[in-house]
Amino acid sequence: MKVMASTSMPPATVEALLDLLEGSGGGVQVLDPPDHVRAAWRRILHVLRSDGHIPDGWHLVQRGRNSGDLVLQLRPGEHPSKRYQPAAANTKVTVAEDLVKAHPAVHQLRNQPQRLPASDLNRSRALLLLQTIADKITAGGHTVQCGSQTTLLVVAAELSSIGIRVWEETGKRWALRLTLAVDGPGKQSTTWNDYATQPLEDQLAEILATIREGIRSEEAHRQAAKQAEQKRKELARDRQITEHRAEFLRDQVERWVLAQDIRDHCSQLVDAGMNLGASWLRWANKYADSIDPLSDPPGTPADPQPEVQAVRNAPTPVSNVESPGYTEVRPWHPNRRWYHR
User: Fold this and answer.
1) Region Disordered: what ranges (predicted)?
2) 101 backbone φψ class: left, alpha, beta (φ>0; ψ -120 to 50)
3) Continuous segment of H or E residues that includes residue 248
4) pTM greater than the 0.70 cutoff
5) Domains of the chain
6) Does residue 144 contact residue 155 with C-beta atoms inside 8 Å?
7) How far apart are the C-alpha atoms of 68 and 32, rounded to whole Å?
8) Nearest to 104 by CA among 144, 151, 156
9) Measured between alpha carbons, how far is 42 from 129 in angstroms, rounded to an integer?
10) First and final C-alpha spacing in the chain
11) Helices 120-139/204-271 angle, 10° precision
12) What is the pLDDT of residues 278-309, one digit of tens each?
């Protein structure tokens, strides 16, 4: 590699530059050139690349385009950056010259010429374009139907549909230009027009890509709506179960507190002078045992049915206890009033 001073200007011609690179073993290094020298090298390199002067089977590597040392190398083979570029695909969609085995929707339109462009040429073109669209879309597993009014074809989506319109128009710079519009989903609309160098047939790949993107957008929207609905149902179900268990838990606590209060009250009655074997005390203690959840600790309650909200069950006393009442003479107590007799 030949090392050159920072003030070294590039050769005046591309041929001289190639001779310089070849004579220096394929490489040249200019030591940190000033801006005007670097710009001069960029200009000659631009001519070298843009006019196709790089020999076949070689590529040019440049470093230091804007700062630092300027290094140029002519190397054999393909440029490394091209290894990562995908091969160009032929995206042009072929449109049949004749309408053979027409799709049912297109066949229906063929029998409704008043909905199609008026000129014979554009009417035929419109049918062939619509047939190609119908074939490509149905091949992807989607449904195509005949539309109504100005919408000629309808691509059925899950939540809405995509409409396709075709018409001809005349302007100051064209006559009977064919126009195609894809409507939806939603209110969006994309339009393509005939051009002198690019008729609608040459834009069909882009048209199909737009339709497929609309289908994917609808499917994504449907999936998102489905997931949101499922999430809503799960949250509602969790709330229902939580409310049901909370009611069950509150009922347990209330029963436990009431049982404790009844037992405390019975103890106070005994302290006040009531006979420990009194039937009222026996019934009260038995009732406390019947409602106390600690007497037979329950497990987690069964979840309610999804359609049925949890309903709180009131405490149910045992059926074989004595009826509450005062069946024997109570001992005198200073807090007793005349209406207790």
Assistant:
1) 292-341
2) left
3) helix 204-271
4) no
5) 2-76 (3.30.110), 104-222 (no CATH), 240-331 (no CATH)
6) yes
7) 5
8) 144
9) 48
10) 125
11) 40
12) 999 999 999 999 999 888 888 888 888 886 44
